[in-house]
Specification:
The structure is a single chain. By secondary structure, this protein is an alpha/beta fold. The chain folds into 2 domains: 1-216, Spore Coat Polysaccharide Biosynthesis Protein SpsA, Chain A; 218-340, no CATH class. 55% of the residues lie in helices and 14% in strands. The chain has 14 helices and 10 strands. The chain has helices at residues 19-27, 49-59, 76-85, 104-109, 165-170, 182-193, 221-240, 245-268, 274-281, 284-290, 293-296, 299-309, 313-322, 335-438, and strands at residues 6-12, 36-42, 63-67, 90-93, 99-100, 115-124, 129-132, 141-143, 161-164, 197-210. Helix 6 packs parallel to helix 7 (221-240), helix 7 (221-240) packs antiparallel against helix 8 and helix 7 packs parallel to helix 10 (284-290). The longest helix has 104 residues, at 335-438. The radius of gyration is 46 Å and the shape is elongated. 33% of the residues are buried.
Amino acid sequence: MSAYKLSIIIPTFNLENDISNAFDSIKSQTMGFENIEVIFVDDNSTDNTFKIIKDYSNEYENVKVFKTDENSGFAGKPRNIGLEKSTAEYVLFLDGDDQLLVDSCEVLLNNKSDIAIGSHINCYDNGVLEHNPALPIGRNEIFETVDDANLLNITPAISAKLFKKELLVENDIKFAEGIPAQDLIFLLEAILHSNKTTILNYHYIYFRNIHKNSVSYKITEKYLLGLIKAYTLIAELFEKYSIDHNFQELVFKKHIGFFTTQILRAYNLNNLTIDEVNGIINSDSFKKLAEKEIFKDNPQFCEYIKCMFDGKYNDAKETIDNIKLNVEISNSYLNMKNKHNDLKNQNEELNNKNNNLKNQNSDLNDRNNDLKNQNTTLTEQNNNVNNKLMELKKDMESIDLKNKELVKSNEHLKSENSNLKTELDTIKSKKLWKLINKF
């Protein structure tokens, strides 16, 4: 059992000027710093970041530091390492340039949910603060089933979202490595398996610092191809769990719109040439994404894909923005959840039956052993009886033999007795004769 109530996992890369603010915000938590396991995973920083966090681990026994073999480019790999090394019942991910509010950990833990999600405040370089509720519904919510489209509208940023580690381990939920948007894939898969997701719209959990030099602002070919791969993985995730197309549309309208905006920004900011942008859209990765059912079966998405292949990126952005979604929230919107629960129930029933059969088999084995023991006892008793019968038989034969000898002896005695009687009679007769003659 872990000595900590919560593990906070922090990936780092060249954050020597920011990491102290993140760490100080953890030390200030109302739940007590001593109850928190802090896990830093450095992605091969080239500045003093690793030295700084190593000093933290030398000073505090609840701080652990790990390092990747080489820079992975995105936070997925460091987060997976941190998740694997964590020991607490709950885990929370925090970016190294963000800060928690003083009671964030306590507020999230008090909900005892599979997932607990709070709101956050975006802090821009120019000092502008932007408040972002976790959901646009404007109130706290507890979802015990995944039957509300609002769940798919949650801000994908993974920071300060609390997860029960058992949920992640049992369902083998990990971050995709080497690509952006891995937090979106991770969050969606976790929500699809969660039995209790708590949304805390009234609680702001952390300050999210958005810098122009952050990964999301570096619109490179690698970054855009990574987004395409991430969206492909999401489509495959939805196919795996038979997610209703109406709700897939809700997710992809939002994120494909973001992707298209990034394409336009990359070109307009001269990050990429038009030939490089066209090369991304005509890549095997984008063609694979376009072949997914959600894009092939929906006329509006088909029009969007056509505009993209034709190089009409502004028209594509206008098309995606104008898509009117026919999203009806119903109990059947998420076939996966029902199928998952059915399979889970069936599995439990089979396990129960299997356990019953095991118990019955154990009982039969016990009874069989009892019968064997009884049979052994009866066999021993039968052998004892047979032995006694044999002894009695020998005794009877001995008695018969003695009886025959007695009979012979008796006959001999009778013969002798007869002879004696004859002799006696003779003697008596003689004596009587003498007596008679005397008189």
